[in-house]
Amino acid sequence: MGSLTRPVQDGPLEDTDPKDSYLIPINIMAEPDYIEDDNPELIRPQKLINPVKNSRNHQDLHRELLMNQKRGLAPQNKPELQKVMEKRKRDQVIKQKEEEAQKKKSDLEIELLKRQQKLEQLELEKQKLQEEQENAPEFVKVKGNLRRTGQEVAQAQES
């Protein structure tokens, strides 16, 4: 196994156990030349100037943000996900309140709702009967008309 560490040996080679040895990292990078020598001919690297950080506006804004953070006045820019989650939570609370309000209906309201449901069911049944009659074959309709006329004639003769 090729590793970048080597064991430290304190004594003779025979007495050392590989399990007991300490591992230290080997330095791969070479030291730069300009650190050791004070040669004036060498050009020393300098850190590049960041124009954004050097601008007066940026410095003022950074100072203001630091002051606000020390005071505990953080900016109110929340991430979009947090805003969405808070909105969902608010909507859920409102929905729960509406459901609780519906559960607290009076006896009169409950009775009126029951009657309304019964009326709607009766209307649906009437509509189904009318649709069945409209969709019935022609001979069934004619037979029904003949029965009605026969009953009307019988009633007229009795009176």
Describe this structure in words.
With about 160 residues, this protein is mainly alpha-helical. Helices cover about 60% and strands about 5% of the residues. The chain contains six helices and two strands. It has helices spanning about 35, 50-55, 55-70, 80-105, 105-135, 140-159; strands at about 5, 25. The protein has a two-stranded antiparallel ribbon. The chain is elongated and about 140 Å long. The model is unreliable at about 10-15 (pLDDT under 50). Keywords: Coiled coil. InterPro entries: FAM107. Pfam families: DUF1151 (PF06625).
Count of distinct strands: 2
Uncertain regions spanning at least 5 consecutive residues: 8-13
Q: Categorize the overall geometry.
A: elongated
Residues in helix, %: 55-70%
Across the major sheet, the strand order is 1-2
User: What's the end-to-end separation, in Å?
Assistant: 120 Å
| Elements, N to C (H/E) | EEHHHHHH
What is the CA-atom radius of gyration, in angstroms?
47 Å
Query: Residue-averaged pLDDT, rounded?
Result: 79
Task: Describe what is shown at a glance.
With 159 residues, this protein is mainly alpha-helical. Helix content is 62%, strand content 4%.
